[in-house]
Model the fold of this input.
Amino acid sequence: MTTERALPRRAWHHLEPLHAVLYYAPEMYAEAAALGFATDTRWPSYFAWRTAPLGAASAALTTAVCYGFSPATVSRHVPAAWSTATPEAVLAARLRAVDAFYRNLPGGVTDSPGLAEAAVLARAAAEAASCAGRPLAAANAALPWPDEPHLVLWQAATVLREHRGDGHLAALLAAGLDPCESLVSLAATGAVAVADFAGRGWTDEEWAAATERLAVRGWVDAEGRATERGRAGRNDVEFLTDRLASGPWDALGAERTGRLLDLLGPLFLTVVRAGLFPPGGTLGIMTVPAPSPPSAPSAPVGGAPVG
Done:
């Protein structure tokens, strides 16, 4: 990628953790418990947090937009989630959780002039995003904007990550990867450990069947490792994901996007250093390890929905 083509990837890298605090912060667990969700794991409330902008989404709709999750996993929590709390209550609670998390960060980041400027720039990028064919992005973009800069920044980050995520699903579909194959093909490159996808809920039998389908296509070898074809296919998916995510950043322009990323640097580090996120997983920038011996430079991978 050229410097300009790298901007969507760099922007995702900076914004994804700022959005993802919703799924990991202690304040989220407190709000989930207050709503009546079990909090022994994050999954009972996860689909409610993620899909509340769509309204009381059915299990079928939730499975469609949360592409990498097994239908059985989704069905364990949806539509039961909407008997626990209405979408309106969930939307209010997620803003309270994010507000409390950011106000509790050290250094008084919510009062920073840099954060206020970053919020303006991020909102401009989010409002420039075309949401045609992108249901989660469109649903989040339709929500009213909060007043506080740190909440504006979080909401903009949410619109932009779902815009990218919806585009990522389009790239997976274009590559002919079904939901389980999308995870198996990524794990096969070594970029993400198989164990990091345990929460997606696929059985060993389903994982093995997806691996066999990829083997028939020549994407994985007998040991389940990515072949040259499989690595190239995954890189094509990630490059298309970046291209489909470029619209908001093209509209904002390289100079203002660069300014936004510079402003986000200190907040990004503060959030990451808060210790919320598990090691590995699909947050941040990852690189597909090059084949041995390397035949060509490998491409960065990512874009998978939070999970």
The longest strand covers residues 286-287. The first helix runs from residue 3 to 24. Strands lie at 286-287, 300-301.
